[in-house]
Amino acid sequence: MNRLPFNLWFILLAAILIAWAFSLTSHQQPANQVAYTTFLNEIDQGRVAKITVDGRQLNVTRREDGDQYVTFAPGPIDTSTIREWGDKKIQVDIAAPRRENPLLGFLIPLLLIGLLIGVFFFFSRNRGPSGDNAFSFTKSRAKVLTEAPKTSFKDVAGCEEAKEELKEIVEFLKAPARFHEMGARIPKGVLLVGPPGSGKTHIARAVAGEAKVPFIAASGSDFVEMFVGVGAARVRDLFETAKRHAPCIIFIDEIDAVGRRRGGGVGGGNDEREQTLNQLLVELDGFEKETSIIIMAATNRPDVLDPALLRPGRFDRQVAIDAPDVKGREQILKIHAKGKPLAEDVDLSLLARRTPGFVGADLENLLNEAALLAARDGRKKITMKDLEEAADRVMMGPAKKSMVITPKDREVTAYHEAGHALAAHFLEHADKVHKVTIVPRGRAMGFMMPSRQDTLHWSKKRLTDQIAVALAGRVAEELIFDDVTTGAENDFRQATDLARRMITEWGMHPDFGMVAYQVREDTYLGGYDTRQYSEDTARRIDEAVQKLLQEQHDRVLGLLTEKREVLERVAQTLLERETLNAEEFVRVVEGEKLERLEPTSETPKDKEEKEPPRVVPKVKPNLGGA
């Protein structure tokens, strides 16, 4: 059974003591009390045998049945009344006066007051280094680093433009007087915008480290509570703390938790959040001109922030921390590779080219996975093979080496992936092959990894080639097996999404023109679409998407039919070797022989020897116009 916390035991004990004290100072009311008028009527009727007088309280005994009850006189009982009762043959006794301790009425209230004061101080004192207690919920939860962080701009890579933007902030914090003398107004707030893991918090620490000023870090969720007014009080306390440590930097991570657009909800937590946002806006405006406090905030949802938060005078400057380019990824890899023993064959520039779209957190995780793989195998250095395997694990998940796969499934997967690879190789504008494998990872039975370059603009020819590559796996199955499987599910999603966006967003279809039928609100968390067309237009779009996909299907069908011999050669090599890198794939396509693998107990060669070879049909299937 779970034990109650000490503070709950303390509250329970205090409640018992208070109840006991009140029981001493209160008189118990008798259960058999009657009205004084009823008592007088019974006297007139001769029903009263005995009366015991105890001040105003009268204990009465009846004649007939001896029942007793209690009544209270409206005033003191005088001797004439007692004599009158005696004349009516009623026995009247006078109770002895009670002797009460005069200190009891003084000590018990004093005990109650002292007990309440003790309870208050017990809960109001700090409980641990964080000062978190029942009466400190209006205090800011921010972490104050009075000493400047050790991080500097040298520890930040992949965002050179952002560092240039922030160097001005560093110069101001180092020498604010120089800017004030010129009448310059430094930006009060800097909003760091970027995808998750891009290093927004890291670069904020680097600014404080470069300027050598205290760093006060908080999260947007720290301000919002169920009690109305708590968030606003915490904002006030945060800025009071900052003024005591000026010059300094306030950093609020995930500011969208408190800075969302107002008016979106009614009552409850929404009202509390809006009060907190209002107080934050007031504090941003309340900075004196000479106050050397910079507030930095980070978000990956800039589209939901309140416009008042982004106007000049508050968050004057927005700095984009986007995913790094190939040069930035190489620099980030070099930073995270410090302290890790790398083998001579490691080429970080090649790894950087292979990982487009990776942010700093992804690259750090990649190197960590590679180090774990090397340590697991008992090696002293991280090899390029470890890094390649780690990249596959980060993108696709771990290899399912123990997964039982039938020979038919392996063969279908081999031809499916060979179809993707050949389409990518022979189509002029498609991304070329970096690796093709039939080793299962995640939910994929195999995959073809393209050698994708960092591209800002995608041409129509490249998009149509990418659609053709996505459909090539299904086409290879139709061509070789005269049947299809469920393996192209994700391929269809990618191809359909590209085709629909070409029509509705990018104006790449002649029948629809340069009209934005669908608006995608760009966020760093995937975005969402807003439909802006009628049902009739929706029907026409569906027909155009289907037609575009069918055109690319027929196009890649003609290509693979022409290259069928190459398709079978690549698929059979995949069945033998399971994985082909870019160089090996090109050699197989060009008809060169690869060096034979040494057979081991775990190689697929042994598995294939136990199964009879399958005769691949050479007849082109009747597609029936599909």
From TrEMBL:
It is an enzyme of class 3 (hydrolase). Zn(2+) binds at residues 416, 420, 491. It is a multi-pass membrane protein. The active site is at 417. One of its GO terms (cellular component) is plasma membrane. It comes from the Bacteria. SUPFAM superfamilies: FtsH protease domain-like, P-loop containing nucleoside triphosphate hydrolases. One of its GO terms (biological process) is protein catabolic process. Its cofactor is Zn(2+). One of its GO terms (molecular function) is ATP-dependent peptidase activity. Residues 616-626 have a biased composition (Low complexity). Its EC number is 3.4.24.-. Its main location: membrane. The keyword Metal-binding applies. This is ATP-dependent zinc metalloprotease FtsH. It comes from Meiothermus ruber (strain ATCC 35948 / DSM 1279 / VKM B-1258 / 21).
